[in-house]
Amino acid sequence: MSDAGESHQLNPRVLDDIVRDLDLQEASALERLQLWYRDFLNTAWDWLKKLTGGDDGWLDKATDWIAHWLATLGGGDPISAEHVIDGVIIVTVGLTALGVGYIGYRLWQIYRPLDSDQQTEISYLLSDPELQKPLEQLRPEQWAPALLSQVCLTLVSQNRLDLYPYSTNATIAHTAELPSGLEVAMSALAVAADRSLFAGWIPNVEDAAVLRNHRNEIIKAVADGK
Question: Would the pTM count as exceeding 0.70?
Answer without folding.
Answer: no
